[in-house]
Amino acid sequence: MDIRTNKIKVEVKAVLGEAKINLSDFVNLRKGNVIKLNRGCENTVSLNVGDVTIATGEICENNQKLEVEIKEKL
Question: Can you give the pTM of this predicted structure?
Answer without folding.
Answer: 0.70
